[in-house]
Structures are given as structure tokens and as C-alpha cells.
Amino acid sequence: MKRTWQPKRLSRQRKLGFRARMATASGRDIIARRRQRGRTKLSV
To answer: How many CA atoms lie within 13 A of 30 on its CB side?
Structure first.
């Protein structure tokens, strides 16, 4: 059986990357929340 996570750098960036987050309002909320929490890595 094939597993669900088949890592690919490009698809990861497009879905979870910084610019993908900044493209939507909810994504910007996520970044703001992570900034507030003091995360070193804001996104992938």
C-alpha cells in the first residue's frame, strides 16, 4: 500500500510556503499567530 505522504519540495512550497500563506486572509492570520507565539520558523 502506498503511503499518503510522498514528499515533493515544490508541492510543499506551493501549499505550505510563506507566499502561499500570504496569498489568503486566513494564511496571513496563521503567520500573525506564529509571529505572536514567537516561532523561529513562520512557514516551510
So the answer is: 16
**Amino acid sitting at position 13:** Q
Spell out the domains of the chain, with CATH numbers in brackets.
Answer: 9-44 (1.10.287.3980)
pLDDT at 41 (0 to 100): 96
What pLDDT shows up at residue 42? 95
- Gyration radius of the chain over CA positions: 13
What's residue 2's pLDDT? 94
Amino acid at 9: R
CA distance 18 to 1: 32
